[in-house]
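Lab manual, section 2.4: Encoding a predicted structure.

Procedure: take the sequence of the chain (100 residues), apply the prediction step described in section 2.3, and record the output as structure tokens. A sample record is shown.
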Amino acid sequence: MNEYDILRFEISHRYHAELELKVYSLHARHIAALSQGDWEIACELERTRDRVHQKLLEQRNRSVSIVDWLELDSYLRKSKKTYPDCYEDIGVKVETDSEF
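Recorded output:
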């Protein structure tokens, strides 16, 4: 496990902690409102819960993306390559059928 894996683990841990703190409490209130037949409050709680969850997912994905770029940057510096260099070596072989 390298430092980037540790950062990814921390991002995941933070996401799940905030999910538990923010989204699960909204979900419990949403279920309570449904069981009491208060549809208007239940709908508002559901929309709020979904917005909060979406924001947490976006933050997590952005953080993971930053860590991925940091890891790639570190690799490129160590190997003395540039960003285009690491993709120029990828060869794509396409076979075609001659019976068109």
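Check your result against the sample. The helical segments are 3-35, 39-79, 83-88.
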